[in-house]
User: Fold this.
Amino acid sequence: MRAPVTKILLGFVLALVVTMCAPLASAQTAPAAFGPSAQSQAAPPAFSGPAPHAAPLQAKGPFGSLLTWIAQTQQTMQRKLAATVKDLKSGNALVAGFWLAWGSFVYGIVHAAGPGHGKAIISSYVLANEETVRRGILISFLAAAVQGLMAVALVGVLVIAINGTGFQVNAWVAHLETASYALVFVVGFLLLVSALRRLWRRWTAAGSGHSYDAHAHAHAHAHAHAHHHHDHRHEDCEACGHIVDVRDIAGPMSWKKVLAVVFAVGIRPCSGAVLVLIFALAQGLFWAGVAATFAMAFGTAITVSVLATLALGSRQLALAADGQNASWVEAVWTVCAIGGALLVMTIGLLLFLTSLGPARPF
Amino acid sequence: MPNWSLNGPQIVLIIALIGSLASGLPKGADAHPHVWATVRSEVVFGPENKITGIKQAWTFDEFYSAMAVQGLDANGDGVYTKEELEELAKVNVDSLQEFDYFTFVREAGDESFLPLKGPEDYWVEYGDTVLTLHFTLPLKTPIDPGAKGVTIDVYDPSFFVAFGFAEKNPVTVGGMAPGCTAKVDAPDAESAEAAKALSEAFFSQLGANSNYGSQFAQTALVKCEPR
Assistant:
């Protein structure tokens, strides 16, 4: 698993470097690369006076100051991103390019720390499956990369190729969201079915509660050599301490399953990225939007990875709490497999239903 | 099963862990703003110091503005005229109906909202990379705010759009209204209503009618001196 993770990380960095370098060539030919700020651009045609400034947001209640801080940080960052894109046109392209990449990266981390972005889905998914930390990170990065690619593809096709309107982009984002949530529900359902089937097989294979009994366990262990031809699968389980066997409930890792969850989560483009892309395009700097999108996806992937790793860590803690006790270990795997699958289903269903609500005005 | 009794609390721990992963996450997708709007409101007075409606001007952030006007420069001259943006204005105010125009008018201290009629005189203007939506919301029944006052809140309960009153002239009094004033109150962190809003917001995260945004609501108070 190490190789794919490294490759994907490298891919991200490469995509960033390439897109960041593209403007440098063109910026050098531009005469006004170090000109004054963007204020001298186009005179406002119909707008009376400068744009009004909003008073800082403030939330009430005991957590008010924290919520206020989160909301204000996001607003400040978004304004800085917008200013940086404009600076690319008129200021020092190299410096502005660096700040755009850095700003988008940090924005991605912070933005993803709020709910959404497949964190809950991916965390529940790795919890439900026999996934390692490395695979959790891989899935997080793949999903973020697909989300970024979808945003670029959507804006590329709808806006650049057919000069569609903002309405059309919004409608497509909404359709893809609905499709994504429906797919998440299906993935959760399939996880649940396969977990229950494996559990059923174990129960029927293991006989009537044999392995839950500590005395029977000791007994079987002592006589393992004498009954070599008795029931191979059963003996394996007794001899090596259950753990390998009960993992079966969660099921082994398969690329098909990984790609299913990556696709289900990833086909929903990040709406933040779509906004940045269109704004950058309106400023005539599409490449900057693409760079920002991937820097943002990189930041998002880090946040999601951390949460998926935390989910795996808590399962590990739970397993270690009584690692010698076979029934405890089995219970943890069962709860994780079924609970995780149910979570994926529930999240998919709730989001799907919400996404069918009335179209938003903005 | 000798060890099960020992492990009971641990099972609870696991379930709690999974539960905490799930709580607040789904509907919370909207719990951080994607669009920012700066609000300027004009309280329109008719005869006898009665409020007849609210004139709104909402200026959006640069990202949303770029998205909204994308593809609407019909003649491609780089200028977005009122006519080119007519459809945008219509779509905006039409879909605002589902969301009660994000405008909540009450007699001060009252629970229920005063009914509003559909928007009139709506248009959008675009310039200097920001978009402003203008519209007037008439009250079904004009009301005299009196000394007690009438409050106006502008917010998106789901907090997808973060509304904030403008720093300068957030609320103005329009029309002939001697002795009437309008001002924005800073949110009162201590008030019982604020605490209620928070607990409501906390428990409504999973529901379709998330009320998270009400915590950020700023209230404008309109009062008139007795004549």
